[in-house]
Each structure stands twice: as structure tokens, then as C-alpha cells.
């Protein structure tokens, strides 16, 4: 049984908010072609996703739960882009990609870009985005 089965109901918490669980994708790194840099630095992504719980008695079936592999594949495609403007762009796009998955309710994205020189400072960006239901709940 998958989430697309009409018999599946979403479990809710007191007050009506959908029951969720957390997926962590921390320490994902990939070489990124940043605009204005000759090197391809290893950029680090840390993601915390709040995902809709599939309900009681869900089968041990990847279709019933959110797979972090889908998110990792999205990040790989994002990092393969050319002339990436910077950490803000990467954080924004990563959040949008995560929220494109129906099961993802909220995502926290932190991106760290190492300095171009040994003496320089690393840069980064972080943001939180959420999908809100019609009633304003996550």
C-alpha cells in the first residue's frame, strides 16, 4: 500500500496537524562550479526535513515513506549546474527541490562554501521553508 492508496489516512496530532517525522541529510558534499571562481570547491549541505508520517501499520515499502535518496539525487543535479551564483542560490534551490516532494512539510537548509584562499573565511547561507496546509498547519 502506498501513500496514493485512497484507503490511507494521514495521522494527525491533537489540534489536527499531520503527524510528522524527521529526516536528516547532514554532511552531503559535492564540487560546485561557482561563478567567479576557477576552482570547484566542495560545498557542504546540511538538511533537516520534516516529513508527513505515512500512518499506522505502513508497509516496509519505499513508496510509503520519503526516501532521502530522492533528496540526494536532487542535490547532485543542483551541484552539477554551471556558474552557480553562490551559497544563497544553493540554499534556496535546495529548499525548493525538497518542497517539490509532496511528503516534505518543512526543510531547514544550511550551505557552507569554503574560502577561495587559505587566509579567507568560509561563506554560507541557511534558511527554513515550510509548506502550509489550507488551515495554516505544517
From TrEMBL:
Q: Origin, by domain of life?
A: Bacteria
Please provide the record's keywords in A-Z order.
Lyase
Gene3D superfamilies per UniProt: 3.30.1130.10
A single GO molecular function, which one?
dihydroneopterin aldolase activity
EC assignment: the record states 4.1.2.25
Cited InterPro entries: GTP-CH-I_C/QueF (IPR043133)
Protein's name in the database: Dihydroneopterin aldolase
- Organism of this sequence: Azospirillum picis
Query: Where is the organism placed in the taxonomic lineage, from the top?
Result: Bacteria, Pseudomonadati, Pseudomonadota, Alphaproteobacteria, Rhodospirillales
Amino acid at each position: 500500500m502506498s501513500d496514493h492508496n485512497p484507503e490511507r489516512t494521514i495521522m494527525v496530532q491533537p489540534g489536527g496537524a499531520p503527524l510528522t517525522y524527521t529526516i536528516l541529510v547532514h554532511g552531503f558534499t559535492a564540487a560546485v562550479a561557482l561563478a567567479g571562481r576557477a576552482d570547484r570547491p566542495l560545498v557542504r549541505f546540511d538538511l533537516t526535513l520534516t516529513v508527513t508520517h505515512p500512518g499506522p501499520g505502513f508497509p516496509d515499502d519505499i513508496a510509503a515513506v520519503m526516501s532521502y535518496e530522492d533528496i540526494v539525487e536532487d542535490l547532485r543535479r543542483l551541484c552539477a549546474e554551471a556558474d552557480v551564483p553562490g551559497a544563497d542560490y544553493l540554499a534556496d534551490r535546495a529548499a525548493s527541490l525538497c518542497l517539490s516532494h509532496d511528503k516534505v512539510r518543512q526543510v531547514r537548509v544550511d550551505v557552507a562554501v569554503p574560502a577561495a584562499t587559505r587566509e579567507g573565511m568560509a561563506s554560507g547561507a541557511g534558511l527554513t521553508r515550510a509548506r502550509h496546509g489550507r488551515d495554516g498547519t505544517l
